[in-house]
Amino acid sequence: MSESAAAPAVHPTAVVHPGAELGAGVEIGPYCVVEPGVELGDGVRLLAQVHLLGRVEVGPGTVIRSGSVLGGEPQDTKYRGERTLVRVGRDCSLHEHVTVHRAVGDGETVIGDGVMMMVGSHVGHNARLGDGCTLVNCASLAGHSEVGEKAILSAYSAIHQFGRIGRLAMLGGGSMATKDVPPYSIATGSYPLRWRSPNTIGLRRAGFAPEERDALRRSLHRMFAEGESSKKVAESLQASPYPSVRELADFVLTSTRGACAGPEPK
Predict the structure, then answer these.
(1) Average pLDDT for consecutive 10-residue bins of the chain (266 residues)?
(2) Are the CB atoms for 252 and 182 separated by under 8 Å?
């Protein structure tokens, strides 16, 4: 740390173990516990009663609020005490009582840059949460699940183990994603989870040109039309001139759990 850099500010009631690394300007609030192997980037703020266990790396500018626990043991009977890594990106906002579990085996649990995790949300072992995602209150990712950039998981929604949510997709409140949700889509419900529509507002906010938005809307409606095979439609979209349409096709073709169901027949 340079002489001009702000020294970490640690509340007298906090416990920072030897072996933890604190960047410039880090703030650690009352009754926090920071264990060996934790690395906090410049300007990280831990509010009251945050517990960081094992190997946890937190990127610069991230704020973790009261009662959150990162790096705890995974809820998996295969876990054998490995000191696996939790990696949190820069400028994230983790609200009260968030939990993020360390990985099983030699993997990592990864949270991207600019992520917001609202109250009580959870990321399970070996899961990956893309840049700019939002988890609304009590949304949960099971182990080994993946969420693409800028996706939104609404309150009380959940993703099945090994499930995937595509980029700029939205999962509706209280939904259970037992199948994969393709990029740029809105899906809701449980048993079955159903595709509802393209995420038109999300596409517009993300700056997609009108012609590409139209191409994605047509592609998604074809993919989930009654009587159509989503994989056959995806194969026909692989030669699209639009990268986002090709991304959609690749997502469906590489799905191991299969894409969510289409809308209810009229």
Answers:
(1) 74 97 98 97 98 96 98 94 94 98 95 98 98 98 98 98 98 98 98 96 95 97 89 94 97 95 86
(2) yes
Secondary element (H or E) of residue 27: strand 27-28
Q: What angle do CA 182, 143, 229 make, to 5 degrees?
A: 25
C-beta neighbour count of 5 within 10 angstroms: 11
| List of residues 6+ apart from 246 with CB closer than 8 A | 237, 238, 240
CB proximity list for 118: less than 8 A, separation 6 or greater = 95, 134, 135, 136, 137, 139, 155
Residue 113 neighbours by CB under 8 Å, 6+ apart: 59, 89, 90, 91, 92, 131, 132
CA 14 to chain centre: 29
The tokens for 80 are 């054998």
> 9 forms bridges with which residues in the sheet?
27
Angstrom CA distances, 89 to 53, 129, 161, stand at 17, 10, 23
Query: How far is CA 135 from its chain centroid?
Result: 7
State CA 140 to chain mean position distance.
9
Compute the distance between CA of residue 78 and CA of residue 58 in angstroms, rounded to an integer: 26
Peptide bond into 198 cis (omega under 30): no
Would you give the DSSP letter of residue 33?
E
Q: Find the radius of gyration of the CA atoms of the chain.
A: 20
Reading the block at residue 5, the tokens are 């850099």
CATH code of the region 9-144: 2.160.10.10
Q: What is the pTM of this model?
A: 0.94
Helices (H), the chain: 200-205, 210-223, 230-237, 243-253
Amino acid occupying residue 68: S
